[in-house]
Amino acid sequence: TKALEIKQLRKVYDNGFEALKGIDLDVEQGDFFALLGPNGAGKSTTLGIVSSLVNKGSGTVRVCGHDLDTERERVKRSLGVVPQEFNFNTFEKVEDILIQQAGYYGLRPRLARQRAEKYLKQLDLWDKRDVQSRMLSGGMKRRLMIARALVHEPRMLILDEPTAGVDIEIRRSMWRFLTQLNAEGTTIILTTHYLEEAESLCRNIAIINHGEIIAQAPTKELLKGK
Ligand code: ADP
Ligand code: ADP
C-alpha cells in the first residue's frame, strides 16, 4: 500500500476560491517527498486536508491504505503533523505538552512519559522540559512541534514549510534529524518553496502551481535540465 494516495482532489473555499483543481498525488512508503511550489499554490491546503485540519472537497485521499472519509481515526493515527504556525498552550510546560499529546492518542501514562523523554532527548529539548513553551526560542519551538508530532510514532510525518524563517544552522540540524528519521523508516512529506531544500533532502518531488500538479518525478530527473 502507498503511504499517500490522492485522486482528483478538489477544494473550493467558502469564498468560492478554487484552491485545488482535481489533483493526483502518490507517495510510496519510506519516501522522502517534497510538495514544492510558490506561495498560494495549494500546498498547505493539500496537506491540511490530509491532516484533517481543512475540510475536504471532492475526490479521495488514502493514507497507509485508510480512507480519509470512512477511516479518519486510523488516518490520524498513521500521521504526525507539524503545522506552520506554533499552536501550543504557551503556559504549558514542554514535557507536559508531549505527555498530553501522547494521551490524546491513547498511550498509557507510563509510556507517554517514556515517549516524551525519548523525543525531547532526540530533539535536544530535554534540558527545557520544565520550561513553559512561550519561553522557548523560535528554533526550539519548531523542534517541539516535531517532537509532539512523533510521540505516537506515526508511519508518516507531514511538515508544512518546516524551515521557513529559521536560520541556516537550525535548518541544517532539522535536515539532519529528518534524514535520520527517514532512514529509520518513517515516510516524510514536506511542503517548501525552497528548491534547494527539496533538492538536498527529498527523493521525489511534486510541483504544484495554481492548484494543479504540474510535475511529479524523482528529484534527479526533475532537476536534470536545470
Ligand atoms: P500554499 O501553502 O501553497 O502557500 P495555500 O494552500 O495556503 O497555498 O493556499 C492556496 C490558495 O488558497 C491561496 O490563494 C490562498 O489565498 C487560498 N486560501 C487558503 N486558505 C483559504 C481560506 N480559508 N479561504 C479562502 N481562500 C483560502
Ligand atoms: P476536535 O476533536 O476538536 O475535532 P481533533 O480531534 O481534530 O479536534 O484534534 C484535537 C487536537 O489534536 C488538535 O489540537 C489537533 O491539532 C491535534 N491533532 C489532530 N490530529 C493530529 C495528528 N494527526 N497529529 C498531530 N496532532 C493532531
UniProtKB/TrEMBL annotation:
It comes from the Bacteria. GO terms for molecular function: ATP binding; ATP hydrolysis activity. Keywords: ATP-binding, Nucleotide-binding, Transport. Residues 4-226 form the ABC transporter domain. This is ABC transporter ATP-binding protein.
